[in-house]
Specification:
There is one protein chain. This protein is α/β, with parallel strands linked by helices. It has a single domain, classed as 3-Layer(aba) Sandwich (Rossmann fold), CATH 3.40.50. It has helices spanning 18-29, 41-53, 68-82, 105-133, 144-148, 154-174, 192-195, 199-208, 217-228; strands at 9-13, 33-38, 57-62, 87-90, 136-141, 179-186, 239-242. A seven-stranded parallel beta sheet has the order 3-2-1-4-5-6-7, with helices on both faces. The structure holds NADPH dihydro-nicotinamide-adenine-dinucleotide phosphate.
Length: 249
């Protein structure tokens, strides 16, 4: 099946850097119009320029995904401008790491809001245009921390684990409308989020990873592109760990 028959519209949150930037570049390279979403307008414009310099199509929507009404307005504007919304990648995410005894309510709530609630609000808003088009691809970015837990990340692991149950429920609710919902769960990938980790932790990660290295953003983008493709039409409710084999059972 060709992915080039029509220009589908994809929304990628957290597209200003890291995994979201790589996902946006990959979807654009596959001929999608990509709506780049994050708070940093200048960085989003730089990603847009990079996409356009290779002949791709993109636009920018600044949006703080911790604010539900901003997400709804952003999705509404995409539908008004393009008359369609086919692909939604909920990738924006944050960490507020600390051990459980020191973790404040604010640290817990902030992570749940940005990583989980934003994805719920975006899925709810995107479901209508996807239903209208009788086609949709929802891809939520989880984490190995949501699969196996991680000390210092009670809040983050809870948010990412909850994404799995939410995505499987969406897959069951929306499957009859031609909409799939899947999770890509990255392991440790080289981005600004993991730059801050101490070298000892990075070395420990490499030791316990069968592929003996951290991943790169393109390796996550490739997995997302599969779930977003025409060919993934019979794949829903799945969780794909892209983690160098770290969590295989
Ligand atoms: P980065 O910290 O490099 O990038 C995070 C992105 O999210 C940025 O584009 C940022 O944009 C955006 N973002 C953060 N908060 C908000 C907000 N309130 N509103 C809108 N956008 C926001 O992270 P990564 O690229 O490494 O991670 C991307 C996703 O992958 C996250 O969900 C993360 O949890 C997950 N992940 C990453 C792993 C890794 O090893 N890197 C491992 C497992 C999962 P801006 O600041 O401009 O708003």
């Amino acid at each position: 099946m060709s992915d080039k028959t029509e220009q589908r519209v994809a929304v990628v949150t957290g597209a200003s850097r890291g995994l979201g930037e790589a996902i946006a570049l990959e979807l654009a390279a596959q001929g999608r119009h990509v709506v780049l979403v994050a708070r940093s307008a200048d960085r989003l414009e730089a990603v847009k320029s990079a996409i356009e310099s290779t002949g791709g199509s993109a636009s920018v929507k600044t949006c703080d995904v911790s604010d539900s009404s901003s997400i709804e307005a952003m999705i509404g504007a995409v539908f008004t401008e393009h008359g369609r919304l086919d692909i939604l990648v909920n990738n924006a995410g944050i960490t507020r790491d600390t051990l459980v005894l020191r973790m404040s309510d604010e640290q817990f709530d902030e992570v749940i809001n940005v990583n989980l609630k934003s994805a719920f609000v975006a899925c709810r808003a995107a479901a209508k245009p996807m239903m209208k088009g009788k086609w949709g691809r929802i891809i939520n970015i989880g984490s190995v921390a949501g699969l196996v837990g991680n000390p210092g990340q009670v809040n983050y692991a809870a948010s990412k684990s909850a994404l799995l149950g939410m995505t499987k429920s969406l897959a069951k609710e929306l499957g009859g409308k031609g909409i799939t919902a899947n999770v890509v769960a990255p392991g440790f990938i080289e981005t600004e989020m993991t730059d801050v980790l101490p070298d000892a932790i990075k070395e420990g990660v490499k030791t316990m990873t069968p592929l003996k290295r951290m991943g790169v953003a393109q390796e996550i983008a490739s997995a997302v592109a599969y779930f977003a493709s025409e060919g993934a039409s019979y794949t829903t409710g799945q969780v794909l760990a892209v983690d160098g084999g770290m969590t295989m059972t």
